[in-house]
Design brief:
- The structure holds two protein chains of two kinds.
- By secondary structure, chain A is an all-alpha fold.
- Chain A has one domain.
- Chain A contains five helices and no strands.
- In chain A, helix 1 packs antiparallel against helix 3 and helix 3 packs antiparallel against helix 4.
- By secondary structure, chain B is of the alpha+beta class.
- Among the domains of chain B are: about 140 residues, no CATH class; about 140 residues, no CATH class.
- Chain B is about 60% helix and about 10% strand.
- Chain B contains 20 helices and eight strands.
- The longest helix of chain B has about 35 residues.
- Classes of the chains: A mainly alpha, B alpha+beta.
- At the A-B interface, helix 1, helix 2 and helix 4 of A face helix 14 of B.
């Protein structure tokens, strides 16, 4: 649930950066060079959203997973809107920290599964 | 309504949103608060014992049956609610016999002594929640009709809003502060677009919820007008699991405790939400048992036993009643609307989305007035109607939350033995709201609109910030002791009130700053 929520938040950040206005105010501070520069953000954003949906679908079922996805996306996008309005300079750092937390949590979870497997085999 | 399609839709969006906006705001605020109805009731009855989920449910059931045997030996129904999940106390319910009036009554149990706890009479969170579809002081059916009408207007406003919003994706995540009218439009869009799935779901499901009242012609057309036929309709739509046939012959009903070994062998220990014995003392008696966990968004498992023989009549896991597609859709939509399945995290997300809905309506009301104010400043024409709207906006937008704070204050200030105290709690809410609506108009000559906004916001802030203090003074519970005892419902309520108080205070501070800049 935590990982899925963080992924939704990350997808909000990435999707917002795929919008020209926010890309300019956060990343380049100048005019956008190519219309393809925002594309990777959009792709990664939708990828994160898809992953979070898969996680939520596995945790709950289709209906409840969708409810969780819509609800977390609403809250995350509200936070992202406020960040873009008042703390736009922090977004890069937040994105980095988020990615690190997600990786750490996922590794921790995987490690737990490995430990359980070893204990089971032992 | 003229011009291009988008212009027509814009006109429709403005007026469908604005006409019933104050009622819609009331519905959204009370409905949103209703997502925490049980938690509010827990705070409003501080006499309730601290939450203890560790007591064995068999002991609770034994205690509850003994208690019901003493105080309601002739009741036709007994129900016991266990302290589990969002049920914070053990509660016994009983329905008096028809000769006694057939009323439902309840008692909260002290699980240490088995005695009933004397709790104050209060509307609690349930009354606030019920107001969002029944309104108040008006007949039930009229309440349903008005709420349906509001939901219909809201639905039109949402659809037309989507049509008129030209840059729905380009301006996603966009809020530009300190840009006057632009900022108001941005925040209106933020509150509308980000939670759009919630807004569409809650409005449409609200309409579906009330369709039996708002569209009675459909039922009358197929089933006729008399009550018997209406009941046949209700029975066919809301089929109940297999119950023994109605039989009023006197018979000895079994104790619910006797069924516990079988229930626990199926579900495990301490997982019951409710257990009830219907048709007590008759041959048609049956025991209904409800699991505390939900299955997806639907109600959890249910068992029905024969009340005389103890034979299992129905198991929701093994048998499912045949449901038509429309019934399934109705169930899904109403389940989504109520959000009963939601755990604490999802409940907070529902709450935030609901607040954003209220924010959407409030900013819509503000935007309408601001647009016209700028136009009137350009043309130099002063409109009394516009002034009236501006002042009533204050009373509605800040006045309602302020009145809800007074409802909580009334719960602690009105003496416990005061006659009709439950009604007076509600009366205090509406009296305060009335005063808040009238006050800006009455004080308009003495104070500027901005200073009137500040006064209401400061008052709301003070009332919310002082609620935890009032709680500590008027009950044996307070924020610190609640945290230390792990009573997170009590502590959560106090913390939320502090946060609300701070939010109103912050809004007041922003307006004070703006006033100083203007000067």
């Amino acid at each position: 649930m935590y990982i899925a929520s963080l992924l939704v938040f990350m997808s909000c950040i990435l999707l917002s950066l795929s919008i020209k206005r926010h890309y300019v105010s956060t990343i380049t501070q100048s005019k956008i060079s190519s219309k393809y520069s925002t594309m990777p953000f959009r792709l990664c954003g939708f990828l994160c959203l898809t992953f979070s949906f898969i996680l939520l679908f596995n945790l709950y079922d289709l209906t409840l997973g969708l409810v969780y996805l819509a609800a977390t996306f609403t809250a995350a996008s509200l936070i992202q809107t406020l960040l873009l309005s008042y703390l736009a300079n922090w977004i890069n750092k937040i994105l980095l920290v988020l990615a690190l937390i997600i990786i750490a949590l996922t590794l921790h979870k995987k490690l737990y599964h490995v430990q359980m497997l070893v204990a089971h085999l032992g | 309504m003229n011009g291009t399609f988008r212009q027509s839709m814009n006109w429709l969006h403005t007026w469908s949103g604005l006409l019933l906006s104050s009622l819609l705001y009331f519905i959204f605020i009370t409905g949103t608060v209703g997502y925490f109805d049980k938690e509010i009731t827990h705070w409003m009855q501080p006499e309730r014992p601290a939450i203890d989920e560790n007591i064995d449910q068999r002991n609770i059931l034994k205690m509850a049956e003994q208690h019901l045997n003493t105080i309601a030996p002739d009741a036709q129904s007994w129900w016991i609610e266990f302290p589990i999940g969002r049920s914070y106390s053990a509660v016994t319910w009983w329905q008096e016999s028809d000769e006694q009036g057939g009323k439902w009554k309840s008692n909260t149990l002290n699980l240490q002594t088995g005695e009933a706890v004397i709790t104050r009479e209060t509307g609690g969170g349930k009354t606030l929640y019920a107001m969002h579809y029944l309104l108040h002081y008006i007949p039930k059916t009229l309440g349903y009709w008005i709420t349906s009408l509001c939901a219909m207007f809201m639905f039109i406003a949402l659809i037309t809003g989507i049509i008129v919003h030209k840059k729905i994706f380009k301006e996603f995540f966009t809020f530009r502060p300190n840009k006057k009218q632009r900022s108001w439009l941005d925040i209106h869009n933020v509150f509308s677009v980000l939670p759009i799935p919630f807004h569409l779901m809650i409005t449409y499901s609200g309409l579906v919820f009330l369709m039996f009242s708002s569209m009675p012609g459909v039922i009358v057309g197929s089933y006729g007008t008399n009550m018997e036929k209406h009941n046949a309709f209700v029975e066919s739509v809301f089929q109940k699991p297999a119950h023994p046939e109605h039989n009023h012959e006197p018979a000895n009903t079994l104790s619910m405790l006797d069924l516990m070994p079988d229930i626990e062998s199926r579900w495990g220990e301490n997982i019951l939400h409710e257990i009830g014995l219907e048709g007590r003392g008759t041959a048609g008696a049956h025991v209904q048992v409800k699991h505390h966990e939900y299955s997806g968004i639907s109600d959890g498992e249910e068992l029905v036993y024969h009340g005389i023989t103890g034979e299992l009549l129905f198991d929701s896991m093994k048998e499912s009643h045949p449901q038509s597609a429309s019934k399934k859709l109705y169930t899904v939509l109403t389940d989504l609307h109520e959000g009963n399945f939601a755990g604490i995290a999802l409940r907070w997300l529902y709450f935030i989305s609901g607040l954003m809905g209220a924010g959407m309506i409030a900013t819509g009301m503000m935007l309408w007035a601001i647009k016209r104010r700028e136009k009137s400043q350009r043309t130099g024409k002063e409109s009394t109607g516009l002034q009236w709207v501006e002042y009533s906006n204050m009373g509605i937008i800040v006045g309602l939350p302020l009145a809800i704070a007074v409802y909580f204050w009334a719960n602690r200030i009105i003496p416990i033995d005061f006659a009709n105290r439950e009604n007076w709690e509600i009366n205090s809410l509406f009296i305060t709201w009335g005063i808040m609506l009238i006050a800006p108009l009455a004080l308009a000559k003495k104070y500027s609109p901005l200073s009137l906004w500040i006064k209401q916001l400061v008052l709301a802030s003070a009332l919310y910030l002082l609620l935890p203090v009032l709680n500590a003074i008027t009950s044996d519970k307070n924020l610190v002791s609640a945290i230390l005892q792990g009573d997170w419902v009590m502590a959560g309520f106090d913390i939320t009130m502090i946060l609300l108080g701070l939010s109103f205070g912050y809004a007041a501070r922003r307006i004070i700053k703006e006033m100083k800049t203007k000067e």
